[in-house]
């Protein structure tokens, strides 16, 4: 079995967010970047399938500028076999990403495609579903457990009413939830070994896919700062404030 795993380079969760001067988006220059946490879970699940002998090859793919090679190297250090970078400096929205990934699927012919359910920078939660639709493959989203038997995938997912288990025929698309697994720590030998693994770089224009943005960002602004709390003398004072003040404290 061959597995493709998509990863995205995002702002590190510990980074202080700064807006661009023109309020067109978040500043990404000279700030710490990391792999999207949901995609890290996707890599971990693929590596575990390989360790069980179910998968034979894992290819990590990413879309973006040259610096995305660092993100791919993280996946290689976790246990993936090789990487593919679709190199571009253009803005890639979910449908564009899905079109790019579909093109890679046609070239690589994987049995399974795993990706995080969403990226923590945009929180769109769209690419996996769009990719499955474009490929006409079955999909299991928000996976909290994955079991492969007899060329079929059992995907357990959390829904409002509890747990739901889907039975999917391969090939299929799976998007990972936080409860699926806990990614391993990277060891120094694996980090060194990852530097020797191959990353294939494909310029976006070679794929000849439509990545035209469908959405336009008009303005990005920070949320209003939370006001400090106020102590009230008694219940009567609380009721009076709730009734008469313009905003609830």
Please tell me about this protein's structure.
With 249 residues, the chain is α/β, with parallel strands linked by helices. The chain has a single domain, classed as HUPs (Rossmann fold, 3-Layer(aba) Sandwich). It contains seven helices and eleven strands. Strands 9-8-7-10-6-1-4-5-11 form a nine-stranded mixed sheet, with helices on both faces. The chain has a two-stranded antiparallel ribbon with strand order 2-3. Strand 4, helix 2 (68-78) and strand 5 (82-87) form a beta-alpha-beta unit. The longest helix has 15 residues, at 37-51. The chain is globular. The N and C termini lie far apart (57 Å). The mean pLDDT is 90.
How many structural domains does the protein architecture include?
A: 1
Most strands sheet: 9 strands, mixed
Question: Alpha-carbon distance between the termini?
Answer: 57 Å
Helix content: 25-40%
Largest sheet, spatial ordering of strands: 9-8-7-10-6-1-4-5-11
The name CATH uses for the topology is Rossmann fold
Helical segment count: 7
List segments where confidence is low: pLDDT < 50 over at least 5 consecutive residues: none
CA gyration radius, whole angstroms = 21 Å
Structural class: alpha/beta
- Portion in beta strands: 25-35%
> What's the order of the H and E elements?
EEEHEHEHEHEEEEHEHH
The chain-level mean pLDDT equals 90
Could you name the CATH homologous superfamily?
Answer: HUPs
CATH class annotation = Alpha Beta
Report the CATH architecture.
3-Layer(aba) Sandwich
Number of strands: 11
Q: Overall 3D geometry? A: globular
């Amino acid at each position: 079995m061959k597995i493709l795993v998509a990863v995205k380079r995002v702002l590190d969760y510990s980074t202080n967010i700064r807006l661009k001067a023109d309020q067109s988006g978040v500043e990404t220059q000279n700030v710490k970047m990391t792999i999207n946490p949901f995609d890290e879970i996707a890599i971990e699940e693929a590596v575990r399938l390989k360790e069980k002998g179910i998968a034979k090859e894992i290819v990590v793919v990413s879309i973006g500028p040259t610096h995305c090679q660092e993100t791919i190297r993280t996946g290689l250090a976790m246990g993936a076999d090789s990487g593919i970078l679709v190199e571009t400096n253009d803005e890639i929205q979910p449908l564009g990403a899905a079109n790019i990934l579909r093109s890679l699927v046609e070239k690589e012919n994987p049995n399974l495609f795993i990706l995080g359910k969403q990226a923590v920078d945009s929180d769109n939660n769209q690419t996996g579903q769009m990719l499955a639709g474009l490929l006409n493959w079955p999909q299991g989203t928000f996976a909290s457990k994955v079991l492969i038997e007899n060329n079929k995938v059992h995907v357990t997912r959390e829904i409002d009413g509890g747990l739901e288990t889907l039975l999917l025929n391969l090939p299929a698309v799976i998007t990972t939830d936080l409860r699926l697994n806990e990614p391993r720590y990277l060891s120094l030998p694996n980090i060194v070994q990852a530097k020797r693994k191959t990353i294939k770089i494909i310029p976006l224009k070679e794929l000849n896919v439509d990545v035209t943005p469908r959405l336009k960002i008009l303005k990005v602004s920070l949320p209003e700062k939370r006001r400090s709390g106020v102590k009230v003398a008694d219940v009567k004072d609380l009721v009076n404030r709730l009734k008469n003040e313009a905003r609830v404290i």
